[in-house]
Amino acid sequence: MKSNLSRVIQDIEALSAFNSTPGSGVTRLAFTEEDRMAREYIKKQMNELALGVWEDGYGNLFGRKEGTNPNAPVIMLGSHYDSVTNGGLFDGVAGLAAALEVVRVFKESQIENYHPVEIVAMNDEEGVRFGTGISNSRVMAGLMKEEELDRAKDQDGITLREAMEIFGVTPDLESAKRPVGSIKAFLERHIEQGPILENTGQDLGLVETIVGLDKYEVVFKGKSGHAGTTPMDNRNDALIAASEVILAVNRIVKDIGDRTVGTVGQLSLSPNAPNVIPGHAHLSIDVRSTKEENMKEAYARLVKEVEVIKEKADVEIMISNGLYIPPVNMSEALIRLMESVCQRLGYSSLRMNSGAGHDAMAMAKVAPTSLVFVPSKDGLSHHPDEWTDYEDLEKGIELMLHTVLELSSDLAGR
């Protein structure tokens, strides 16, 4: 019983073709035509495996291999297939391809599983189009509120709800929730997106903690004016205030330390003209830490600094909270099981933390959850040159395959 790497390569390369920026990395955003084409490909693979295929009230796509006990809690494995703008081949997709391959091997080896096994393909983990993130898993965990469907908008002003309806999905968050106890284990395999495994020469990373994520937006309202005729001491420059806040974020997280990180990744100006003082600015802030108290401290200190900046720049500043998820621990029992499987397979493994958010962090609210990393070349991700050697992917698939084999057995179900 062994995985077939050629099939995995075929899945990854086929999905990379559903892309709005050919020649400039992979861009496949949620509820777009590229999403639809990728989804049809995934459905085709699931149907060829004779799985039960359906979509839930957020558009999560499932393929179910029934168990000898259909009422037993399911083993769920999968990942996301959406991307950032101009991203790479492997982020998310490699995990989904692994899930498909595990079930293929089960089928061709005629393995009878006591627990049903479900593949899940998620289309809105990155949150690029609507500025949210890990949306599919948050819905399954009951962590998304109805109002987000109408509040979240893309750059064209289309709400998340409208985009889903145009796509053909009738939003029904309640029906998409998975009750605690209905999932025996959720397993996600992902590229590391960092350099640790490559630098240490380890085959696989077993994640213990996924960092917490705090996203908020800041709007600055000043006053536009002529760049040549408005005196410097008579300006209400929104960009000056925004610049002070950007520097404050950097200063605060460095001061807190303890591997706390903060990023301003988006900045927009209006009127955005070379000879006009910016009267309006808008920026995003992303703070992450493995300790929730660090995240809360960063926010509290920023709010205080904003009050000072408002007074100094004479600009109105409004902070609105977006997505907040505290740090999440993965299942210790699953980590130990995977360490045992790695030893049997002859693979080295390393316990580590994840600095990136993943669907596993939301799924841990409703099920024992594990996140497995495979090495990333030079630690590069979210970039057209993102790369993971296929031999490294194969090791991750073999670990998933043998872990699911143990979890889904009759003995494991009792």
Description:
- By secondary structure, this protein is of the alpha+beta class.
- It folds into 2 domains: 5-211 and 328-413, Aminopeptidase (3-Layer(aba) Sandwich); 212-325, Alpha-Beta Plaits, CATH 3.30.70.
- Helix content is 36%, strand content 22%.
- It contains 13 helices and 16 strands.
- It has helices at 5-16, 33-48, 93-108, 135-140, 146-151, 160-167, 173-176, 196-200, 238-256, 292-313, 332-345, 359-363, 390-407, and strands spanning 52-55, 61-65, 74-80, 117-122, 183-191, 204-210, 212-221, 225-226, 261-263, 267-270, 276-277, 280-289, 316-325, 328-329, 349-354, 369-374.
- The strands form 3 sheets. Strands 1, 2, 3, 4, 5, 6, 14, 15 and 16 form a 9-stranded mixed sheet that branches. Strands 7, 9, 10, 12 and 13 form a 5-stranded antiparallel sheet that branches. It has a two-stranded antiparallel ribbon with strand order 8-11.
- A hairpin with a 5-residue loop joins strand 1 and strand 2.
- Helix 9 packs antiparallel against helix 10 (292-313).
- The relative contact order is 0.18.
Properties at a glance:
alpha+beta; Aminopeptidase; nine-stranded mixed beta sheet; five-stranded antiparallel beta sheet; 414 residues; Alpha-Beta Plaits
Q: Which class of the largest domain in CATH terms?
A: Alpha Beta
* Termini gap: 25 Å
CATH topology of the largest domain: Aminopeptidase
Order of SSEs, N→C?
A: HHEEEHEHHHHEHEEEHEEEEHEEHEHEH
Helix content: 25-40%
DSSP, total strands: 16
How does CATH name the architecture of the largest domain? 3-Layer(aba) Sandwich
**How is the biggest beta sheet arranged?**
9 strands, mixed
Helix segment count?
13
The number of domains is: 2
**Rg, alpha carbons:** 23 Å
The global form is elongated
Mean pLDDT: 96
Assembly type:
single chain
CATH superfamily of the largest domain: Zn peptidases
Unreliable residue stretches? none
Structural class: alpha+beta
Strand content: 15-25%
